[in-house]
C-alpha cells in the first residue's frame, strides 16, 4: 500500500473519531482540547486532529467558529436526530435535578466558607496552650497578691474609710467656696484695673489652679 493511501486512511480514521466525539459530546471544542481528550485513547497526533477538523468543517459535517486567533468546532445541530417530547421532558427533569444539586452545593460551599473563616480567625492549638499557660501564671500571681493582702494587718476599717470620705467632701466644699469668693473679689478689682487680668495676676503674684493643671477632685 502506498504512503499516500496510508495517510488518507489515517486521516479518515481521525475524522471519524472526531466526528463521533463531537456528536456524542455535543459541545464546542478547540483543536487543542480535542487532541488532549483523545490522544491517549486513540493515539491521534495534534497535526492529524487539526487537519481532520478543518476537513470536516470544509465538508459541512461540523461547524467551525473563530474567536480571535482560536477556532472551535462543534457538531452541526441540523444533522443530529431531533429529540422526542419524552426525551425533552427527560432532559428538563435532568436539568431541574442538576440545578437543585448546584444550589445545594453552593449552599454547602457557603457554609464551609463561613466555617473556614471562623476557624481562620480562631487561635491554633499551640496558641491556645500558650494562652492557657499565661493565664495560669497570672492567676497564680493574683492569688499570691490576694493572700498577702488578706494577711496584712494594716487594713482600713469601714469607719476609717467613712471618716476620710467625709473629710474629703468637707475640704472640697471649702475649696469651691473659697475659689468662688476669690474669683468674685478679683473680678470686682479688675473692673477698675487699667491692665489685663494676666498682668494683674503677675504683679500681685496670684497662681491659679489651671496654671498648675490642678483639678478639683470628685467626691468619693
SSE succession = HEHHEEHHHH
Strand order of the largest sheet: 1-3-2
Sequence stretches where pLDDT stays below 50 over 5 or more residues = 1-7
Q: How many H/I helices?
A: 7
Envelope shape: elongated
Q: How helix-rich are the residues, as a percent range? A: 55-70%
Kindly report how far apart the N and C termini lie: 115 Å
Radius of gyration: 47 Å
What amount of the residues lies in strands?
Answer: 5-15%
Question: Quick one: biggest sheet?
Answer: 3 strands, antiparallel
In total, the number of strands is 3
Helix and strand composition category = mainly alpha
Overall mean pLDDT:
87
Give a quick set of tags describing it.
220 residues, mainly alpha, three-stranded antiparallel β-sheet, 7 helices, 3 strands, elongated
Amino acid at each position: 500500500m502506498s504512503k499516500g493511501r496510508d495517510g488518507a486512511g489515517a486521516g479518515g480514521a481521525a475524522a471519524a473519531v472526531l466526528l463521533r466525539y463531537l456528536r456524542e459530546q455535543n459541545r464546542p471544542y478547540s483543536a487543542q482540547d480535542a487532541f488532549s481528550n483523545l490522544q491517549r485513547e486513540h493515539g491521534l497526533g495534534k497535526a492529524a486532529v487539526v487537519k481532520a477538523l478543518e476537513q470536516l468543517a470544509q465538508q459541512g459535517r461540523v461547524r467551525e467558529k473563530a474567536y480571535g486567533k482560536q477556532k472551535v468546532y462543534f457538531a452541526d445541530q441540523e444533522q443530529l436526530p431531533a429529540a422526542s417530547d419524552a426525551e425533552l421532558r427527560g432532559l428538563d427533569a435532568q436539568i431541574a435535578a442538576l440545578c437543585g444539586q448546584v444550589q445545594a452545593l453552593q449552599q454547602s460551599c457557603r457554609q464551609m466558607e463561613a466555617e473556614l473563616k471562623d476557624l481562620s480567625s480562631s487561635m491554633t492549638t499551640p496558641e491556645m496552650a500558650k494562652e492557657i499557660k499565661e493565664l495560669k501564671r497570672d492567676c497564680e500571681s493574683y492569688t499570691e497578691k490576694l493572700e498577702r493582702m488578706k494577711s496584712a494587718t494594716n487594713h482600713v476599717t469601714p469607719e476609717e474609710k467613712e471618716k476620710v470620705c467625709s473629710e474629703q467632701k468637707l475640704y472640697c466644699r471649702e475649696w469651691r467656696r473659697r475659689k468662688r469668693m476669690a474669683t468674685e473679689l478679683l473680678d470686682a478689682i479688675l473692673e477698675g484695673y487699667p491692665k489685663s487680668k494676666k498682668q494683674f495676676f503677675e504683679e500681685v503674684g496670684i497662681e491659679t489652679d489651671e496654671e498648675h493643671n490642678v483639678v478639683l477632685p470628685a467626691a468619693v
